[in-house]
């Protein structure tokens, strides 16, 4: 098995049909590839078996999560170099079958099988969640939310920093993450036109940051709902520490079960991605019904780019299996259409795509700065999942593969008076 790296590189280039843009270091210590390129470390032959038995993104993800694959050097550089070969290449069973019709590819796979050792598929890492379909029932949604958010509040404190806001910040040059998150919360409050005495529903309230900010800075009464028990416990303590228990209520509750409307305003920040395409109109209708006439909704949501043929769209297998089970992204046009179908008048759409790339890079930096402790708190596999998904997501936002938008919508009364200023983006 001498010089496994050169053999791996040769086979990989044979199968992929293009030069491999990274350096390889194999389990025998051998290396091959440009000396100044990021290095992919293949720690053992089990990594090859994972990829062979599940070609494409999911096999690579399993090897990464299990620690069979690693990256030395520039993480973002390595992911950018490999994205065109994995994440942007497109993968499904038909793609694999078509590739195997090429004799050179078949020969390369045969060589990999020789390198991989015993032809036994390794069990997936325990962090992987298996979903049969995107049902989005109350039970399945609660399980999916628990998988992602009940990782441990101490772990999220490392990643998110003091703000404990798990959504795109709103940056200015030279700003800090905490300041950018504060500015994002204030932007949401301004768009909602919050005034003292109003009632705000915060859907997917997380660790309570939006609810606390709105109550403390704008004098509103807030109900925050989440499906995560760990988030709710943490948020309630923060509310008590701020002396806001008379104005902020945190509930473990599905948004579909909120019955105590009407509210003057609703914020939904980074929650709608969990709703699902089949349930989105229901989501919009529920929020519409909870608002007073003239009430505003601020829907802050990640969006994917539309496909020429939407029937060919595939959910990201790594994200679905390890990060956001049952999460679904929709194009911004689809979101706006569904909100208006529910009765809303959409008044403003603001893209803040670049802001999310900066936010994710800061979260990755936070995680890496306290890596040993993060691994102790969440486990090595889960910590590796978060590092990969956040770094890859930062690149996806930078490359315009995905975006994030704030949509301001109004339950406009029959009189037609929206209550918004004639010149929008003054907000008050």
TrEMBL record:
It is an enzyme of class 2 (transferase). Keywords: Lipid metabolism, Methyltransferase, S-adenosyl-L-methionine, Transferase. One of its GO terms (molecular function) is methyltransferase activity. CDD domains: AdoMet_MTases (cd02440). It comes from the Bacteria. InterPro entries: CFA/CMAS, CMAS, MeTfrase_dom, SAM-dependent_MTases_sf. Coiled coil: none annotated. Residues 155-413 form the Polyketide synthase-like methyltransferase domain. Pfam families: CMAS (PF02353). Residues 116-137 are annotated as: Disordered. Its EC number is 2.1.1.-. SUPFAM superfamilies: S-adenosyl-L-methionine-dependent methyltransferases. One of its GO terms (biological process) is methylation. PANTHER family: CYCLOPROPANE-FATTY-ACYL-PHOSPHOLIPID SYNTHASE. Belongs to the CFA/CMAS family. This is Cyclopropane-fatty-acyl-phospholipid synthase family protein. It comes from Streptomyces hyaluromycini. The lineage of its organism: Bacteria, Bacillati, Actinomycetota, Actinomycetes, Kitasatosporales.
């Amino acid at each position: 098995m001498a010089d496994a790296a050169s053999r791996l590189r040769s086979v990989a280039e044979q199968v992929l049909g293009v030069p491999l843009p990274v350096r390889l270091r194999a389990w025998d210590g051998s290396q091959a590839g440009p000396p100044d390129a990021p290095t992919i470390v293949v720690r053992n032959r089990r990594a090859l078996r994972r990829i062979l038995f599940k070609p494409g993104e999911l096999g690579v993800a399993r090897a990464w999560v299990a620690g069979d694959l690693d990256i030395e050097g520039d993480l973002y550089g390595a992911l950018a170099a490999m994205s065109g070969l994995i994440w942007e290449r497109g993968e499904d069973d038909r793609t694999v079958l078509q590739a195997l019709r090429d004799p050179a590819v078949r020969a390369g796979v045969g060589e990999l099988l020789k390198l991989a050792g015993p032809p036994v598929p390794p069990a997936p890492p325990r962090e992987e969640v298996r979903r049969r379909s995107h049902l989005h029932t109350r039970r399945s949604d609660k399980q999916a939310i628990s998988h992602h958010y009940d990782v441990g509040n101490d772990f999220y404190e490392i990643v998110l920093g003091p703000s404990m806001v798990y959504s795109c910040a709103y940056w200015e040059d030279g700003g800090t993450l905490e300041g950018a998150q504060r500015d994002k919360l204030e932007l949401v409050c301004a768009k909602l036109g919050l005034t003292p005495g109003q009632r705000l529903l915060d859907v997917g309230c997380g660790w309570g940051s939006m609810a606390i900010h709105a109550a403390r800075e704008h004098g509103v009464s807030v109900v925050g709902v989440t499906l995560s028990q760990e988030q709710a416990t943490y948020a309630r303590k923060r509310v008590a520490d701020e002396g806001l228990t008379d104005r902020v209520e945190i509930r473990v509750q599905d948004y579909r079960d909120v019955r105590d409307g009407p509210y003057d305003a609703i914020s939904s920040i980074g929650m709608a991605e969990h709703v699902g395409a089949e349930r989105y109109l229901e989501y919009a209708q529920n929020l519409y019904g909870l608002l007073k006439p003239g009430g505003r909704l601020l829907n802050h949501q990640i969006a994917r780019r539309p496909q020429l043929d939407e029937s060919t769209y595939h959910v990201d297998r790594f994200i679905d299996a390890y990060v956001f089970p049952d999460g679904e992204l929709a194009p911004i046009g689809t979101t706006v259409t569904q909100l208006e179908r529910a009765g809303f008048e959409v008044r403003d759409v603001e893209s803040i795509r670049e802001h999310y790339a900066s936010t994710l890079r800061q979260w990755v930096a936070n995680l890496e700065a306290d890596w040993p402790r993060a691994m102790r708190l969440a486990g090595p596999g889960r910590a590796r999942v978060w590092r990969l998904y956040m770094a890859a997501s930062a690149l996806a936002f930078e490359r315009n593969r995905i975006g994030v938008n704030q949509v301001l919508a109004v339950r406009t009364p029959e009189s037609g008076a929206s209550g918004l200023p004639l010149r929008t983006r003054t907000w008050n």
